[in-house]
Each structure stands twice: as C-alpha cells, then as structure tokens.
Design a protein that fits this description.
Elements lengths: L2 H18 L4 E6 L15 E2 L1 E2 L2 E2 L3 E3 L12 E4 L9 E3 L7 E10 L9 E6 L7 E5 L5 E6 L2 E7 L5 E9 L4 E6 L2 E7 L11 E3 L15 E10 L4 H9 L10
Antiparallel strand pairs: 1-17, 2-7, 3-4, 5-6, 6-17, 7-16, 8-13, 8-17, 9-10, 9-16, 10-11, 11-12, 13-14, 14-15
Length: 247
C-alpha cells in the first residue's frame, strides 16, 4: 500500500469537505429596540406605508424563554382590519445566505388566506415566502416552486425558523425549532431571485388585510453564507445568540 499517496487522498477529501460549507457571517440584524435599525450593517428596515402614511408598529418586551440577546420584539397586525409590517432592503441579502428569526402568532389558524411572515418576491411559485398556512395551524415555506408545511403551532407560543439558500446551486434548507425539516431544490434559475423582503404581509395594501400576520417577531438575523445544522441548533437553544463572526 502506498501510504503517502493514501494520506494525500484523505487530506484532499477532508479539505474538500471543509470548504463545502462556507462560514456564515452575520451581516444584518434587526433587534427591534424601539426602531427598525440594522444593528450590524447599514440596511435599515423600512416601515410599510399605507395611503402615504407609515403603518403602525409597536415594540414589546416579550421574548422567547431564556432569551439573552435583544431586549424587545416587534408587534405587527395589532389594529383590526389594517395592514402593517416592514421591508428588508434587498441589499441585505446575498446569493448564498441564511435568514433566522423567532415569531409568536396571535392566531394559529390563518383562515381563508395565509398570514405572511415574509414575502421575498411578488408572485406565486417564485422566490421565498414564509407564512401560517391557510386553514391550517402550520408554518408553510415556499422556496422557488416548492411548498413545505412544517410543524404545528399554537397561539402565543414562540417558534424559531431558519432558511438557508444557495442561489447558484438552486438549493435551500428549511429548519423549524432547531431541526432540519426539509432540503429543497429547483431546476429553473428564474424561480429564485433576491428581492426586498416584506415582513408581516404579502404586500402592504389595504386589500391584503386577509393576509396580515398578527403577532410578534424577535431577533431577525441575516447571514452571508449558509448556517449548518449544528449552528441552527445553537441559535434555537440560546435565543438571542449569534453564530460566527460579525461582518
């Protein structure tokens, strides 16, 4: 047996495996400490505007149990028959990235129309959308032309969601409460593009009151690079923590 050659082959395999996972770097963070500022970068979120006026947003001290990071969450959809939320600028997103946040819903069944936590895009069967499914008490994530329903939810309980993606490889990983729920792939590059992320509704127009998320969102983090399963588990185990280096 040629020991040096075998060692070289094994070393090459190890290096390839190590480089396959690019280190995730926290590039943008929304702590909701009385505002929509990006506490890491410069991509401040923008409050939704309805009929020329900013939508009402509120900040609250409610946090997931054992949280040790940001001291507040943002409340969305608290006024009856109204639309509210905010937009994450597209500059905050990278071709290989991750999105992490906690949410607590005031209603677990969205009824006839899905309650949208996030809509990054504008049409069905494209881009990225996260919602409470219509007529079901489940989180639903749509990536490109794929659809995945995750675990059941109850009202007024905190849940953790992470989505990682690689636009070029056309792959995404969906995590719910620290565990990998699904790997997704697609074969049409046009199905997934980076666009401003609307948080709280499908779109900010009075006609979308039926799609208004009602509840709280805590510690929205955006990473350049994909979080791996162990890192996602760490974020879930320690609400308010961050992974890796900070850009």
């Amino acid at each position: 047996m040629n020991i040096p050659r075998l060692a070289a082959i094994l070393t090459g395999i190890l290096c390839a495996s190590t480089s396959a996972h690019a280190t995730a770097t926290l590039t943008h963070r929304y702590e909701f400490n009385g505002n929509l500022n990006d506490s890491i970068g410069t991509a401040n979120a923008i409050a939704a505007t309805i009929d020329g006026l900013p939508a009402a947003l509120a900040y609250d001290a409610a946090r997931p149990p054992e949280a040790s990071g940001p001291v507040a969450s943002i409340q969305i959809g608290q006024a009856a028959d109204s639309v509210s939320g905010f937009t994450i600028p597209v500059v905050a997103l990278s071709d290989v990235g991750s999105l992490s946040f906690w949410f607590k819903a005031d209603r677990s069944n969205a009824g006839e129309g899905a309650d949208y936590l996030l809509n990054m895009g504008g049409t069905y069967n494209k881009d990225l959308r996260i919602s409470i499914a219509a007529d079901k008490d489940r989180v639903e994530i749509n990536v490109a032309n794929t659809n995945t329903q995750l675990g059941k939810i109850t009202e007024h309980a905190w849940y953790h969601v992470v989505v990682t993606w690689d636009k070029t490889a056309q792959t995404a990983n969906l995590y719910f409460n620290g565990a990998l729920a699904k790997n997704r792939t697609w074969d049409d590059p046009a199905r997934f593009s980076l666009a401003p992320g609307r948080v709280g509704n499908w779109a900010f127009s009075p006609k979308y009151t039926n799609n208004q998320f009602k509840g709280s969102i805590y510690d929205l983090q955006v990473y350049s690079g994909q979080l791996d399963a162990s890192e996602v588990k760490q974020l879930y185990a320690a609400p308010g923590s961050v992974i890796g280096s900070v850009d």
